[in-house]
Amino acid sequence: MTSPVSASSRARPVRTRFAPSPTGTLHLGNIRTALFAWAFARHHGGQFILRIEDTDLERSSEASAEGILRDLAWLGLGFDEGPYFQMQRMARYREVIAQLLAEGKAYHCYMSPAELDGLREEQRARGEKPRYDGRWRPENRARLGLTPPPGVDPVIRFRNPDDGVVAWDDAVKGTIEIANAEMDDLVIARAAPVGEVGVPTYNFCVVVDDLDMEITHVLRGDGHVMNTPRQINIFRALGAEPPVFGHLPTVLGHDGEKLSKRHGATGLDEYAQAGYLPEAIINGLARLGWSHGDDEIFTPAQLVEWFNLESLTPSPARFDASKFEWLNGEHIKRLPVAELAQRLKPFLDARGYGPEPAPEVVAELLRERAPTLAKIAEQACYLYVAPEVPAVLRAEHVTEANRTALIEVREALGTIAWTAEAIGVLLKDAAKRHGLKPPQVMMPLRVLLTGSTQAPSVDRLIHAIGRQQVLSRLESI
Ligand code: GLU
Fold first, then answer.
1. Which one of 1.10.10.10, 1.10.10.350, 3.30.70.980, 3.40.50.10240 gives the CATH number of domain 391-473?
2. Would you say domain 7-82+204-250 falls under CATH 3.40.50.1820?
3. Pick from 5, 167, 346, 462: most CB atoms within 10 A?
4. Backbone angles phi, psi at 227, to 5 degrees
């Protein structure tokens, strides 16, 4: 048996990679993979490499590759090398295939797809696992007296070891072992005339890349688990020890079904437009399958400080849109006001709100009142636009009992020092002088200024709206 690939045996500087296929928008599961690879590299002071796996010409697009770059940039997951594009590395893959051919570790196979189908049928009929039988391996070819059929371009197959097992200590799933007898000889180059090397295939390119890019740790989705033993055999055929592998379980929806838009899981563009902070998305994604004690809320810097492979969970994590929203609200509350203001500004601009009150004022006033930047901007409406006050609300709150006090407040607001403290004192004094409870003065003001009873503390609200606007909105008392 070959010894398992172990996480402890490496002293090389950590190099991880994110290797997306540019075939659409990155989904949350992919982004989480990128995040873990990034966090692991950063934690170890290593390098994070971006590789675009664009060999599926039909499904790959430049727009998708650009979207990937945009997503990583928005999240702040900077890479140290790349992006490398597999399509630009074809010459290198062909060179390595030629080397394997020369060393007898790969060979030409002339079996046509129809023959292969026939073979699989027979194997199935015998109750065997359908697989290529190695008949074009040089020794078999000689023994069977096979000669290349005219006009057929051969594929190139990798000569998989016949015996033993491939075993590795998966950083997430623990030890995994696959018998070599389970694996047939993988096609590593598609059909091409002898003397040429056809288009290299996916599992082969990945190995050459991970080797050339000196990747030490491969974190990827567990859909790739079955590729790993094949890849390990190719690494070894190339005289290299494979990296550490960690296969991350799929992210599921809250109902345990495969994650989709139906669960509120959208691309990052949509999160950005809805006013999510990248640090909240990072926090939420990190908690899908990784934990640090009971910590629910943490910054990207803390993630980097704490990240380890040991705390990855082998069971599938469940995505919960409402938790992401809650986390976003928590991160908003924790941002310094000036920083929040800066992030809020585009959302206010988009609604045509400004220049006064300044975004800092909005940030200060509403930071605890809405979980996303878009919702804060939506709420900020009454800071910029005089509201329609529903007649019912007005009648309910502005009564003969408090009208005189309110008029007195309005007059004083024309002249007092414009600070939230002075305004607060004015309101309390007015209530006391007129034998009213403070809410009897404050609630009608809130209603007249915002058209609603749901608004922040009225002294800060009045201060934020500004003297002229406040006076004009109170004219109708
Ligand atoms: N391109 C593959 C994918 O998007 C990743 C392969 C890998 O990480 O090895 O699933």
1. 1.10.10.350
2. no
3. 462
4. -80, -25
Residue 19's pLDDT is 98
User: What is the per-residue pLDDT across 323-352, written as a single tens digit (0 to 9) for each?
Assistant: 999 999 999 999 999 999 999 999 999 999
Locate the ligand 1 atom nearest the alpha carbon of residue 223 and give its number: 10
* pLDDT, position 264: 78
Q: In CATH, which of 3.40.50.150, 3.40.50.620, 3.30.1360.110, 3.30.160.20 is domain 261-380?
A: 3.40.50.620
Question: Which residue, by CA, sits nearest to atom 6 of ligand 1?
Answer: 19
- Find the 462 Cα to ligand 1 centroid distance in Å: 55
pLDDT 10s digits, 90-103 = 999 999 999 999 99
| Residue 345 annotated in active site | no
Ligand 1, residues 25, 86, 206, 209: which to mutate, most atoms within 8 A of Cβ? 206
pLDDT in tens, 147-180: 999 999 999 999 999 999 999 999 999 999 999 9
Q: What are phi and psi of 123, to 5 degrees?
A: -65, -45
Nearest to 303 by CA among 21, 41, 10: 41
- Reduce the DSSP state of residue 81 to 3 states and report it: strand
Strand partners, 220: 247
Prior bond to 83 cis, omega within 30? yes
Question: What tokens does 148 get?
Answer: 């290349």
Q: How far is Cα 221 from Cα 170, in angstroms, rounded to an integer?
A: 12
Q: Is the pTM of this model over 0.70?
A: yes
For domain 92-201, give the CATH number.
3.90.800.10
- Which residues, 6 or more positions from 284, have their beta carbon under 8 angstroms from its beta carbon? 323, 324, 327
Encoded tokens for 408: 């007195």
- Nearest-CA residue for atom 2 of ligand 1: 20
Which residue, 405, 399, 382, 395, is CA-closest to 469?
382
Q: Where in the chain is the domain with CATH 3.40.50.620?
A: 7-82+204-250, 261-380
Q: Across residues 199-206, what is the average pLDDT?
A: 96
For the beta carbon of residue 149, count every other beta carbon within 10 angstroms: 11
Return the structure tokens found at 11: 């002293």
Q: Which two tokens stand for residue 80?
A: 């140290």
Strand runs (DSSP E) across 89-164, as ranges? 106-109, 155-158
The catalytically annotated residue of 129, 261, 432, 437 is: 261
How far is the centre of ligand 1, averaged over its atoms, from the C-alpha of 202 (Å)?
9
CA distance 246 to 194: 38
Residue 424's alpha-carbon distances to 224, 310, 370, 429, 445, in angstroms, are 63, 54, 24, 9, 12
